Amino acid sequence: MLCYKRREDIVRFLKIVKAQGKKLGFVPTMGALHDGHMSLIAKSKSENDLTICSVFVNPTQFNHQEDFDKYPISTTDDLLKLNHNACDIVFLPEMIDIYPNGTKNTKLPSLGKITSVLEGAHRPGHFDGVAQVVGLLLDIVQPDHLYMGQKDYQQALVVQKLLEVEKRHNTALVVCPTQREADGLAMSSRNIRLSEEQRTHALGLSKALFYIKSNYKLCSNEQLIEHVSQLLREIPELKLEYVSIASQAQLEPLTSSETHEAAVALVAAWVGNVRLIDNILL
Ligand code: AMP
Prior knowledge:
The chain is an alpha/beta fold. The protein has 10 helices and 9 strands. The protein folds into 2 domains: 2-176, 3-Layer(aba) Sandwich (Rossmann fold); 189-281, Pantoate--beta-alanine Ligase, Chain: A,domain 2, CATH 3.30.1300.10. The strands form 2 sheets. Strands 1-4-3-2-5-6 form a 6-stranded parallel sheet, with helices on both faces. Strands 7-8-9 form a 3-stranded antiparallel sheet, covered by helices on one side. α8 links the parallel β5 (145-149) and β6 (172-176). The chain is globular. Adenosine monophosphate (AMP) binds at residues 29-30, 36-37, 39-40, 148-149, 151-152, 176, 178-179, 186-189.
């Protein structure tokens, strides 16, 4: 496995590789890697000649300093996992490699309403930071395929929009299914920060989504949302931010009458001081 730290070095190397006609798959991450990330690596390996994984905790997408400060970092473990899963190239940039002109000097594209609902409403500026870092990483790597997880459903929609609006990247987005622990909890780097008890409370999120999926179209969407919200509010240490049943394409809230639209159920909640999100296609 090759490991690059400097932007110029990876750009030089990838130029040679691309001139040989090799297909590149790219998996951007913020590290603290788990099997969810590894599923993206596996998918990329199955569809490309070379797979590149970046590990960079991007400060511009955090809207709480504490969340950024406490974001888990485990570079040695990450490298071992990537090597074990036969990732070809790791990119471990510093701030200067991603933001040579500072974080304030990138022109942010306007991506419309998709950036301001749900996660966008609860985490102001979050998707600006995501669009900014993904755009800059794509400038460096210029992959054929970009692999992202359905776990961050809205993020994938925002990045798809970014690719459509900017048109400067010749990259296709591939969204991969959410990987879960055996008991249903969606894998997340933030799970490490949960105590054993909080982890049990956090199971409420996936349980709520599974309940909605099993009862979808048997009750109205309003009843489903009300029922699971009530259950979630009873869980100690859990502070619910939202439960939504929305269109898969635009994340517009759906009432039961709009049965023709493909739907997704999404949830966000704090468990202690850890913010978790999850979703399920209906
Ligand atoms: P992160 O390191 O949290 O920024 O995630 C990097 C990529 O891994 C994103 O595209 C996430 O959507 C994806 N990802 C995170 N958790 C999971 C999971 N449980 N299953 C599948 N993909 C995931």
